[in-house]
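Consider what follows.

. . .
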Amino acid sequence: MDTTNAQVMRNAFRAIVQGGNVDAIDELFASDFVGHDTAGGTFGRDEFRGGVNEMLAAFTERRVDIADQLTDGDKVATRWTVTALHSGAFRGIPATGRRGYLTGISIDRLAGGKIVESWEVTDDAGLLRQLGVLPSP
């Protein structure tokens, strides 16, 4: 297995998001992992696992497409798209039965072959428009 930082990130997206393998979080993320949200808060590996479980329960038939990856030292920037079927309740939104996609950019710092820190920006409003929850601009 290729253990470059970029490959670790591809493995994480495919195993966890596309494959639904939540146990891979323990294999690919450091125990002291710190995620940074767009509001300036932080979360750990257990909170990340909770968010993944919520997403997996609400969105099925997931496919991950990695559009670009750039590396700089211990950091990997990944531009990605996840396409899925909204088949379960998600953050108070009942299943719509619609297929949609979420785009995002993640910047991850790795050490010893594990993800130790992450920053991610996603187009949540775009997904909500596709699901019919928000009006189109």
Summary: Residues 5-18 form the longest helix (14 residues). The chain has a mean pLDDT of 95. The longest strand covers residues 59-72.
